[in-house]
Design brief:
Blueprint (H helix, E strand, L loop, with lengths): L1 H24 L13 E6 L8 E6 L6 H12 L10 E8 L6 H6 L9 E8 L6 H11 L4 E5 L5 H15 L4 E6 L9 H9 L5 E5 L6 H4 L4 H18 L11 E4 H4 L13 H11 L4 E5 L13 H19 L27 H8 L5 E5 L5 H7 L4 E6 L11 E4 L15 E5 L8 H12 L7 E7 L4 H8 L21 H10 L2 E9 L3 H5 L3 H16 L1 H4 L2 E8 L3 H20 L1
Parallel strand pairs: 3-4, 3-6, 4-5, 7-9, 10-11, 10-13, 11-12, 13-14
Antiparallel strand pairs: 1-2, 6-8, 7-8, 14-16, 15-16
Helix pairs in contact: 1-2, 8-11
Amino acid sequence: MNLELKLDRRICGNVLARWGEELRRNPLSKGSKALPFDLHCSQGSAGRTGEGLPYINAEGATSGPEDLMQMMLEHSKGPGHPVGRPKVLIFVVAYEAEAHLEEVLSRIPPGVFEFETEVLVIDDSSRDRTFEVGMRSASRSSQHFTILYNNENQGYGGNQKLGYAYALRHNFDFVVLLHGDGQYAPECILDLLRPLIDGRADAVLGSRMLPRGQALKGGMPLYKFLGNRILTRTQNFLLRSGLSEFHSGFRAYRVAALGRLPFQYNSNAFHFDTEIIIQLMLAGCRIQEVPIPTYYGKEICRVNGVRYAIDVVLATLASRIHCLGILYDRKFDIEGPSNLHYGLKLGYRSSHTMALQAVAAGARVLDIGCGPGSFARELAKKRCRVVGVDKFLPAELDAFENFRVWHEEEPWDLDLRDFDSVLLLDVIEHLKEPERFLDGLRHAVRSLRGGPRFIVTTGNVAFGILRLQLLLGNFNYGKRGILDLTHTRLYTFRTLRSLFEQCGFRVESVAGVPAPFPEALGLNRLSRFLVWLNNALIRAARGLFSYQIFMVATPTPTVDALLDDSITGSREKAGAVTR
């Protein structure tokens, strides 16, 4: 215990020691974007070789390191956190940073090296002596340094990909991104690491906008400040987020979180930073911001501001369009195989509201392809008893009376005679052999009475928007929607009816379903009006304006069922004759 406490005391470093007590009383993890005490940017050279560089001075935090050490010791034993000393990678991106790199490396706080720490510098094919400076700094240090050189320039984003791949390959717990040009203060590394170490975050972003007005006081040019604020507000609006800044290059990540992100598909340009934040959001990772000082000196700015702004906005829009299921973008496909992205569409005319109305109160329902269980929860409000079937376990398992895992290639052995309704909501298009599947269901009815009503929905591939896209040469699959990546069959009104009739079903009714505008715009007057307008157009031209197809069908008796009935009836008739 004494040894552990001694190690933790060194880990804290000067900054965390001064901030520890205040952070414990007023943690930033509850959405606060400002520190509970004043943050000052001062000029000085305390403990550094450079002059005129800002450092953080948190006045008012009077506690010593012991309390914070104990907190870190307790947190390090929590579930999902590294046991013992974490493995930390300080990743320095460098391009023609000969004039600044040595000083940046010398300013890394000694407390950082009380972790199992490695400093990785990747020189992105600089034309100056950046690599030589890095090697000289490494040779003069007693710490673990690795200096790499890219034979071809990878770009700012491409260089980051290499560093994060290095962190994953060597099983680091955390990685800190630091620029080799001195724009960001290495003294703040411990502040970025702390929320990761104590388990409160998966990514920590250094923000120059905290507290408000600090960036201008630190010397950020007004035009850059305004551009930063406008871009950040635009991105927050589009992503429904609340970050104070998207555009700081000083940040730290939990390496396990990076392992869930397809960052290898991101841009090699400067808006890589935006794309990886969006990926973290889509993955549900916990993101925190900590204040960092602003510094603008003699380093060369290599960012084309206009091009960068356009790229950032386009990347943000692309993520939204991807999430709406309009166009697929592989780098924003974070979830992997699951059914959690299939949400419930209620409160307006949709496939779900129409299906809900078609099921009688108190009915016994078989929900095939039941998804996360949200629709079963709505059926339960109508006193329905629901049995769920899916290849994934539902998130709301308690919504079902019974549930079974089933895959298409498995034989269907569930007796359907006890059910009043069978739901195939957005299922038939996922099947490789829908004919065989429907034959199996029809045989499972085992009845001459017509069996349960089958309520079916699927996308309409003849929808007008898709026709227009095809005219323009586009046929874009997506995560959701008519051209879902997992769809193996596509249907029109005619082909869906033909499928069921050829498989021995009697089609009772068919209707068109309008596009789910509230999914994109929210449930408001505009989206309700668009649904109403779409519904009116469906009445005029159903095949052109229907986003989905809604159908109710019942199975006709199979030949085997008719033969069994004939045999049974013949026996009864023969018995009556003999009497």
